[in-house]
Amino acid sequence: MIDEIVKKSWDVIVIGTGIGGGTVGRRLAEQGLSVLFVEAGPNGPRGEQTALDSDVYDPVARRVRGFWPTRLKAEINGRTSEFFGPLGAGVGGSSVFYAATLERPERHDLDDSPERPHPTGGWPVGYDNFQPYYDAAEKLYHVCGNEDPLSVERPSSLLKPPAQTAGDNAMMDGFRHRNLHPYQAHMAVRYLPNCKNCFGFKCPRACKMDGRSAGVEPALATGNATLLDKCTVTALRGTDKSITHIEVERGGKKFELRAKRYVLAAGALGSPRLLLASKSEYWPQGCGNSNGLVGRNLMFHVNEMIALWPERGQKFAGASKAIAMRDFYYRDGRRYGVVQAMGLEASYGEIVHYLNMMFDRSILRSLKVLRHLTRIPAFIAAKLFGSAKIFVGIMEDLPYTHNRVILDQADPARVSVQYTFAAELIERHHSFRRMVKKAFRGQRFAFLGFQPELNFGHPSGTLRFGGDPNSSVLNASCRVHDIDNLYVVDASFMPTSMGINPSLTIAANALRVGDHLIGELSTGADLK
Amino acid sequence: MNKKKQTMVDNEKMIRAGVVVITGAGSGLGRALAINLADRGLKVVGFGRNKSALQETASLINKGRFYPMVVDVADSSVVDMAFVEIEKSYGTVTLLINNAAIFPRLDFLDETPDSFQKTMNVNLGGVITCTHAALKSMQQTGLGRILNVASFADIAPMPASSAYSVSKGAARILTKALVADLADRFPDIVITDWLPGMLATGMGIPDGLDPATAAKWGAALALWHDPSLNGVTFEQNCELLSPRPLKRRVKDLILLRKSPVARKIIA
Asked: What is this model's ipTM?
């Protein structure tokens, strides 16, 4: 089988099978193009319910489970730490573990306007041009939910969400009394009978829609796509203008693969790393990096965890999974983001996990014994929180060229980042907290963090698209400026991180790039 | 009923709707388990090396509930073929009871490396071959139940029991190793060790427990599908808690962990 794959000249090779790679591969295969998915991780057994677990440290065990096998090296504000990021490496990528919140951004996330100027002057493809692809992505991912009552845009293509629990209803009523505007969040879940709400762990059925169930699996079902799992791409190779082949390694064997077009979808950390690692005589700074922007403008969302107790006389029954509100999304000329339910009760186990993660990034992290002590504040917190529900505010991070993915000279295969908190971000974080505090005045609530927490599961921006080749890595079609047959469809393309989960926008963009590729390849605008 | 309990009930239904494989079903405890589970309306496939012994088991069970298959569990290719055949003819295996074992009474000086290995191949190898084959479909559906009939022979080996003690001890370690590899990924594939006690069977003692009595507990435990039973050991009808040394108990006390309570099988 490998021999045939190596011999064949594919229409498109897709590197990575998360939301971006899975979705573009499906679009291409459904249109009759031959697609090869190259995935570094395994195509795990379908019945798995593995939860992303940073306590699993053995690289073999991590690989088998579809976790990113190595620690992320992060130099944050000049201090280096190493930890396992919430990242997947298997068929479906990180998305098999995600909470399936697929929401549209706001118009100002993409477009520049006099009322709401865009930090980059606006995306090269605007909100209106993205709309048909948002519609298509919502259909592909079976997204259900209710419209945001604050939205002034035309309705999304949402399916009817399941009936809400009495507890969630009560909570939403409480929010409305506070003049907030909650709605049922937009979920890529089919809610099949006995749905387990697989948020944070792999769904054993095609019920949660992710890069695997809504991307790779339907692509393979067409008969036009092939999956090569446990296969690591070590370098892209080519001339000054084109990719000629990719070098891969699988089971200790090295070989080359060839296609008419190459689509990079290894994630906003993995894709720039691969480009930087593909240095050659033609690309002395790395592939597509003649302007030195590959890996730069790295953004993460800033998470603000909020515990919220029921108001007097109310009861929240069960964990809320699907409540969102955009009341704090944009205020007084500043970009914040959505507030949504985490699907968590403030239980003891959840709090221990959260505190352990904080501990691993703190100054005390080398004193392993102390890690056990997080149980004591967690126990007190669990007693204190009782029936509190956890919400998370996702706050937009803005692009800065000094925040970036770098090539680790000592170990080029691993992901290494540099990030400095901008003064502007810290200030915005403070005013976000003040705003939330004010909105819930009189209700018992608590912030679970003290400082801004980066969401390492939401990296973006490292290969931004744009009209000007001097200030971007990709053109408006998400093709690498320097290279005529290399495209990127993961979160790297985003010039700004938006105030919302990136998945729907990644999927919509993948469909858009897919259509462009279909056009290119079917009109015979072939390069060779 | 809360959601967790509902899921358990649904999973138990799905386990009952599939096929049960019992190894060593031609005699003793294996036969008693086959009779008990077939009487509960389950579809049982019985493995054994002796055709006439399996047919005798079949004669004690209503027609259409028990399917004998001549399989030597020590032979992995035979076991693999048998599981393919089961999938084709009877349905998907949802419950495996690893019961087959041999107990040759031999002084170590009278064993040969080959004779020792032969016992290993049945008592440990048989658990490996059948578990590996059953997991092929279970890892795709994510649902299954595996009950390993275990023994204390490894704790204080008796004279003339070296191969048996080593193989049964290793089988208990295998359960723990499987839990390390599978429990977090497949919480609904539940693997449990069960020590039935000294039975009045060919391998047991004359004044031991009636295998039919033990089978009541074994069958009930096999049909009890709760992720928290993963890696747990039961003795007869009661959960065996792993001993907690003083240091651990003090630590648990400080860290406000609850002390565990042994569960009982409701037969």
From this structure: 0.90
